[in-house]
Write a structure and sequence with these properties.
With 448 residues, this protein is mostly helical. The chain is 65% helix and 2% strand. Strands 1-2 form a two-stranded antiparallel sheet. The radius of gyration is 23 Å and the shape is globular.
Length: 448
């Protein structure tokens, strides 16, 4: 695939900024009062202007500019976090606190967050261009950025994920696997300190360090796996241990919040929608069982993907760590008790760096769009008193079950795919035995 020239890269970056601007403009109406004659719920549903960024400003006391996880409090009835603490890992909470410092309103906070999101999106785009050339258009020119760039803070772990892939595949690190695995682990671990999911990718590269058959002695493999694991744990430990020592209750507040968070309609997960009407009853015992089931299903799915990765690595002599990371993400998204709309941003970079058929990409983006439109429009109809089944409810069902089915299929498709990274690098192979002079096939030379 031809590498895009500077003008084409500039066009990508401009488009990314335009889509981020569209995301901001679509969220701004929710920072003001609703139009006359509409309740706030109806206004949000009709304009689809919801953003976690603006919505958390008042309930989490972000305007007080208090250091999170030290001054925050948690209550279970009603389920609330206050004092600047948010329901995200500590590095994410610190980022939110820092970006809230220069502003004094939800509107200003949303604008500043969107500006930062534009910078992050450009950085992700340029990294993907470096990795895959023109395939970066899949990230730069599809709806998720317009819908979700200013929805939450998910571009932070997305950037860290792409940085980890870059570290693992850049040729300059080929002769220094310690640095390669350590930097990749550091990038994925940093992403996990923003949102948890990138920590799974550390497991994939640890398997690559241990199982790739490239002539390294066992001791060196273990040491390089330790570098990956150490890099993956370093930032989460640095971001968590000080807060745990300063105020254990404050540090545990978001953990307790997430543990007690109900699996409601807004989670958009198969657990709520598949277990109706029991899931909507509000029964605490049933909510606890759903949480336990989703946690067990997620753990089982992760273990299955890792087991398949080990089998493929032993069979091929090369660990498909990139394919494994994508499959781990797909399993996590479908099995977790929350599958928020903006999670599609996590997935899109893997559509770029793996050779996945365009049909799969298009199908998932359409299912996500159906979930987005169906969710907000159904909320609008509910807010104005509509009780009959509408087209919005049907679109929402298509989105929820379409995404779930496609994620299950994509977990398999990802594991069977080939990398699209242009500068794909492998550790040096040991010299071939004299009786084995046959060169590797093209597919074997790029398989990871």
């Amino acid at each position: 695939m031809r590498h895009p020239g500077r003008l084409e890269q500039l066009a990508m970056c401009v488009l990314v900024l335009v889509l981020t601007g569209i995301s901001l403009l679509s969220k701004l109406p929710c920072t003001g009062p609703p139009p006359p004659g509409l309740t706030r719920a109806a206004h949000i549903g009709r304009s689809a202007c919801w953003s976690d960024v603006a919505a958390l400003w008042t309930p989490r006391d972000l305007g007080l500019h208090r250091l999170p996880y030290v001054n925050g409090t948690f209550t279970s009835h009603p389920l609330t976090l206050t004092g600047g603490t948010v329901e995200y890992p500590t590095l994410g909470g610190l980022w939110i606190w820092l970006t809230a410092l220069p502003v004094d309103s939800a509107r200003g906070f949303l604008v500043l967050t969107a500006v930062v999101a534009g910078v992050l999106a450009v950085a992700v785009t340029l990294l993907l261009v470096r990795l895959t050339g023109r395939r970066a258009w899949v990230f730069a020119a599809t709806p998720p950025l317009a819908l979700y760039a200013a929805y939450n803070w998910d571009l932070l772990p997305v950037l860290c994920t792409v940085l980890g892939v870059t570290a693992m595949t850049t040729p300059r690190f080929r002769s220094s696997p310690w640095l390669r695995f350590g930097l990749a682990g550091l990038a994925f671990g940093t992403g996990a300190a923003f949102k948890l999911y990138p920590i799974m990718f550390v497991a994939a590269i640890v398997l690559a360090a241990l199982l790739d058959r490239d002539g390294r002695p066992l001791g060196r493999r273990v040491a390089q796996a330790s570098a990956a694991l150490g890099g993956g744990l370093l930032v989460p430990l640095l971001a968590n241990v000080p807060f745990a020592l300063l105020d254990l209750d404050g540090w545990l507040a978001p953990v307790r919040f997430q543990a007690e968070r109900a699996t409601g309609a807004s989670t958009l997960s198969v657990w709520y929608w598949g277990l109706l009407p029991w899931s909507s009853s509000g029964d605490p015992a049933f909510q606890h069982r759903m949480t336990a089931l989703s946690t067990a299903a997620t753990a089982l799915g992760v273990l299955v993907v890792l087991a398949v990765t080990v089998v493929l690595a032993l069979r091929r002599g090369r660990t498909p760590w990139l394919q494994s990371a994508a499959a781990l993400l797909a399993v996590y998204m479908v099995c977790n008790k929350v599958d928020s709309l903006q999670y599609v941003l996590w997935l899109v970079p893997f559509f770029v760096v793996l050779r996945v058929g365009g049909w799969w990409v298009t199908a998932y983006l359409l299912a996500d769009l159906a979930a987005f439109v169906g969710w907000f429009r159904s909320q609008y109809y509910g807010a104005i008193g509509q009780t009959a089944l509408t087209w919005a409810d049907q679109a929402l069902a298509v989105g929820i079950w379409g995404r779930a089915a496609l994620l299950v299929a994509l977990a398999v498709v990802f594991l069977r795919s080939e990398p699209a990274v242009q500068q794909w690098s492998e550790p040096e192979r040991p010299p071939a035995a004299p009786h084995d002079a046959s060169p590797p096939t093209h597919s074997e030379s790029i398989r990871a």
